[in-house]
Amino acid sequence: MAAEELVNSSHWGAFTASLDEQGLSVKPDPADPDPSELLRNIPASFDKGVRVLHPSVRRGWLDDGPGPSTRRGSDDYVEVSWDRALDLLAAELERVRSTYGNPAIFGGSYGWASAGRFHHAQSQIHRFLNTIGGYTRSVHSYSHGASSVLLPHIVGDEAPLYRPTTWNVLSEHTDLFVCFGGVPAKNFQINAGGISRHTVRESLEDARARGAEFVTISPLADDLATVIDAQWISINPATDTALILALCWVLLSEGLCDLEFVDKYTVGFEEFARYLRGQSDGIAKTPGWAATICGVDASTIADLARRMAGCRTMVTTSWSLQRARFGEQPVWASIALAAFLGQIGLPGGGFGHGYGSTGGMGAGRLPYPLPTFHQGVNPVNDFIPVARISDMLLHPGSTYDFNGQSRVYPDTKLIYWAGGNPFHHHQDLVRLRAGFQQPDTVVVHEPFWTATARHADIVLPATTTLERNDIGCGRYDDIMTAMQQVASPVGESLSDYAILTKLSKRLAVEEQFTEGRDEWGWLEHIYERWRESIPDQFTPNENFAQFWAARHLDLPGADSKHVLYEDFRSDPEKFRLATPSGRIEISSPTIARFGYDDCPPHPTWLAPAETVAVGTGPYPLCLVANNPASRLHSQLDNGAVSVESKVLGREPIRLNPADATAREIKAGDLVLVRSDTGRMLAGAILDDRVRANVVQISTGAWFDHSSPEVAACIHGNPNVLTRDAGSSKLTQGSTGQLVRVEVEVYRGEAPDVVVHDQRLWMHPA
Ligand code: PGD
């Protein structure tokens, strides 16, 4: 008899799954017009070589008790019963909060976790920690940490990130898409929480078929889906700001700047215009000036500015641009450029930030919230900007700047993580290791033996979405999916909820945490509470049981014809922006008051180290360490698509053929990549879609530090190379996107990658 096909969902799409003796077979949802290839990674969820099968405690912690330890990351683990693990953990949580107070618990727990409204790992862990008195949290994201802090100063809130002009409007109205950082297909197949219909490619193709033109400005030609035949302007990494300033200069000097728009809707134009003309610093931001910085012809820049002024133009910047030192500048400059063009608030014109960075950007937004598992209230006020974790761990009590405040790092005694992989997402992983060695205790819930789990003291095996029931729906998705349990839990794993329920009982907060409900009770509760709360015209007829039986529910009402700032354009007094002036701030008096040398009061060219004397010095190449096409972040790095993409079992690094020849590197060679932060091994691929003097490697290969004498990572995790520095004092965002490196053929004995098989790296006690 054929195994039953059940439905489930992931950040990269809904699917059906069936399990039989052959294993798990996964098929895309038949209604999805452009399903993600990453569905082929999902069967690897059951790979016992990478799963945490039993509660495990680090031997050193078990023997010596809590305390800082340099053995974290290289110690043995002892498998213990659930009761023992949870008794130890409950006692340790009690010790830390009674001795040091709840701020000593760092529960930021940043990460993408999995799709599912109830079993969302961060919601679970935050609710639990709130019931025991709270935790120090992290704010903002690795995705757009710089923009999240900057945008409220410039446009009053984060609307460009959460309610951009929708694709339907763009494909109908935009004549020219000018895409800084492209609109990468690999990223638009993903959406946090789920994406049941992949439609961005179709929108791009519709626009192209109507005659729209696309220009992608990037060091990588394939940052814009090739199907739409885009013009590639190849640019030096991290120099977009200079190019945008030159575009503004052309508009200004050729009378193409919409002064009426600027006057009515913005403040700070004069100060910025003086800077463009060189009146404030002696350097006019001409195309000739920009050409020497960007490596783009002056005539190409001037022509582009004229083209932009001549038609309905959408200026877009990808999130990756701001994941760099001074990452605020290209975003702010792009808003100033769009203001100069005067099309903000018009259908298809203005600016966008993050089109293609996820599939949700530009999808219609529902006019009501989704079913939610409430996290409660955190009584602890303290927080860190998310990418400052190593600084916090290494320098408790020291001060740092952030968004106009001088703040003090808390003293962390216990780290509690579920649903994220800092040894994937953070920069300078050797430094992060040193940070993780400082607290008394590190606790991680994980389905997989990730590097974060391998640096923890107490590792609790968590189920994946295939091993539990949930309600699937992402923001910007208009289909809700019943996520049906496909298999029994692997090993002794439990859902985060089940783990925390048992823990809450030991800490006498079970009633507050569970409210007396089990998984089914919660699913029904959050669904029915959601159904009661949304406006009548959208309320589904289906009760929970009917939704579950139907397996899908259409969510009506998405505003698929939204135009960003249409209201503001119609009446800037009535629809004032939430900036101090109520207008778009081309120059910001607030930021001026902060007095930061690394974030001046208007968009400014500041040269990041990556841009200086490219092609020369000990690290002549600029590495672009961007998000992968073969998996989501570090998730399912052991999956089929990810494994097939590797070269000699390592993450592929792409080099321009000329750079490879100059270094006698051939396709398929094992290479050593060095930066002034660290060294890693990778497998070479030659590709002329990569600009000369640039190399590219994706993030997400699991950190393998088993042969430190060869390299900090022998598998190709670029975060051993990247620098752990904030984007600026204003935003303190992650700067993981770029780093200067040198690449050479690795001629030594190649150590095996061990992290995909626990029998190779674990030394069971
Ligand atoms: P993931 O690999 O998604 O990476 O960093 P993030 O930490 O989100 O990690 C999620 C982890 O959660 C996985 O290990 C997974 O197994 C686990 N997990 C999944 N479901 C569950 C669950 O139900 N319960 C529990 N307990 N665990 C679960 C992503 C971050 O990386 C992001 S968002 C960006 S944009 C950054 N991008 C870059 C970049 O461009 N360049 C560099 N150099 N570095 C980056 N890092 C950032």
Automatic annotation (TrEMBL):
InterPro entries linked: Asp_de-COase-like_dom_sf (IPR009010), Molybdopterin_N (IPR041460), MoPterin_dinucl-bd_dom (IPR006657), Mopterin_OxRdtase (IPR006656), Mopterin_OxRdtase_prok_CS (IPR006655), Prok_Mopterin_Oxidored (IPR050612)
Keyword set includes Membrane: no
Molecular function GO terms recorded: electron transfer activity; molybdenum ion binding; molybdopterin cofactor binding; oxidoreductase activity
Cleaved signal peptide residues: none
Keywords recorded for this protein, A-Z: Metal-binding, Molybdenum, Oxidoreductase, Periplasm
Domain of life: Bacteria
BP-aspect Gene Ontology terms: anaerobic respiration
Cellular component annotations (GO), alphabetically ordered: outer membrane-bounded periplasmic space
Statement: the UniProt record of this protein carries the keyword Isomerase: no
One Pfam family linked to the record: Molybdopterin_N
Domain Molybdopterin dinucleotide-binding intervals: 622-734
Domain spans labelled Molybdopterin oxidoreductase N-terminal: 9-45
Occurrences of domain Molybdopterin oxidoreductase (ranges): 51-506
Needed co-factor(s): Mo-bis(molybdopterin guanine dinucleotide)
Family under the similarity heading: Belongs to the prokaryotic molybdopterin-containing oxidoreductase family.
Identification of the protein by name: Biotin/methionine sulfoxide reductase
Species this chain originates from: Williamsia limnetica
